[in-house]
Specification:
mainly alpha
Length: about 60
Amino acid sequence: MIKSCKTRDAIIFVIGFVRELRCKFKVDVWGYNKLLMCLSRFVMIDDMKCVYDEMLSDMIKPDIG
């Protein structure tokens, strides 16, 4: 779902969807990474900062190595 986003509206929808599911479904580092990469494709810096802060609040370390 995240990788298939072709427009800014699509990624905004996905961000909202992921935020709704965060209480039921835990997003892992790979999911956050894909989301951040997609946001960077559309140069959505403010949204990237918000997603990064959410990632840290979920206790997910930004390390996929």
